[in-house]
Amino acid sequence: MTNTIYTRQHIIKAGATLEACITNASTRYNIKQTNSHRIFHTKESLFSAGEEFEGLYILRSGSAKSFITSLDGDEHITKFFYPGDLLGADGFDEHKYNENILFLETSSVCLVKESDLHNLVKTSDDFRSCLLRSMSHALVKDNSQMMCLNTCSSEQKVARFIIELSEQFHSLGLSCTKLRLSMTRTDIANYMGMAIETVSRILTSFQNKQVLSIKNRQLTILKLDTLYSLASKEQCSNDFCANTYTEKNIGAVY
Amino acid sequence: MTNTIYTRQHIIKAGATLEACITNASTRYNIKQTNSHRIFHTKESLFSAGEEFEGLYILRSGSAKSFITSLDGDEHITKFFYPGDLLGADGFDEHKYNENILFLETSSVCLVKESDLHNLVKTSDDFRSCLLRSMSHALVKDNSQMMCLNTCSSEQKVARFIIELSEQFHSLGLSCTKLRLSMTRTDIANYMGMAIETVSRILTSFQNKQVLSIKNRQLTILKLDTLYSLASKEQCSNDFCANTYTEKNIGAVY
DNA sequence: CGGTTACTTGAGTAGCATCAATCTAGGTGG
DNA sequence: CCACCTAGATTGATGCTACTCAAGTAACCG
To answer: Do B118 and A137 touch (CB under 8 A)?
Structure first.
């Protein structure tokens, strides 16, 4: 049964299910399963924009980032990936990958070759549903990310980023309050469309508010509910935002 | 043969091809074709977020916008649609539509019911490829839109918006220099993440620079190449941006 | 342990949003 | 057919968010 109740984090499930589907369907419909597993290390590349599309990858462990490059050479991070996530779905378009994937830590992936993919889509109802759902979910996430980029203040952006991460970790069965960031501050800033100094300042202000504590890459969320209210729009209008830059001056760490 | 050479605008082709695929495949594989055609008028809604997913729509004529609503009720336009575009692909995710679609003018659509969709994907190689390509292309476009929102100045955003529109029109066989905007300035501002006043000011500045002329919704591009350079990053750094707000004061319309 | 990369903090300012007022066009009803 | 009304668009003045530049500190790696 694939009729699970779908939550906000279900891309993970969909991803996990995808892999299950592959195993199931391969044996059931007697499809020669050629999906290979590989391990990569920090800063290694899975593929780059322009390379021939070979199939989809499922991230099994670790984490990665995808980025595209503008004509003038600067890079923009489009997404961070965690176990269960699908990599390379943008490759169907022109039959070559559209983005670059770099691993943020030691990670393992599993390749589903294009030919297998088509067989699986044809024969397995589960797999077909999973794949469509997974790509569809990516579109949904893109929309909400775009809305955030367009309408959120920097403070809200950082709060949202941390919450998203926390939920992601939670859905993977990890702690949602104690997390290790696998990306740099620069990566976060780039992804969220802000200056690295702003990210740093806001994280410091969150620490001053006792909302979280962060040392290097080790993040502990102290007040999850406050973080949520910082991420929502109404909350911000009066005090919080204004204080981000000035609170040191009025000297208060209540 | 679906192995066309893919250009920037090929989502149109893919959309068009999609429809062709449906017709072909339906007759060839004897699939009961239940896709219905309907006509909508300005400001009418195709579906709203949360409604049960029934299938995909292909826009045949006219134009539409999609938007999502945040918790505090404000709306954010996520995309504009033109003939050939696929509507509702985000519905696979939770089996309900995720966004709202409103038509910007009198338009017609064609529904491909979910059941038909699955049959087509199973039986028709062409249709399957088209669908995957189409969804994949949406992901690619999202990425470039996000990069634009994150890194472009307001001037670049407006320039890019117009160029995108021009290319869209061109790929539809219409003039790429004389176009009628089907959306309001407010819509453009919302989509591009800026204030409506800023959009208006920049359009005025483009007119002063003789790059384009715009009267109400009727836009004529006078210098396409200049527009392209305004949209690229390097160009902006020195003169143009600084002058956007001040050029009137120094009084010059060279 | 020197060199590089990552991060923090401060000061100054530009770009753009906001507020407010005016203008225009399209639609409606008397 | 004209006067009115409302939504859409323009233009100006002002202020704030967040970027840039700059300098210093901390962590990491060979």
So the answer is: no
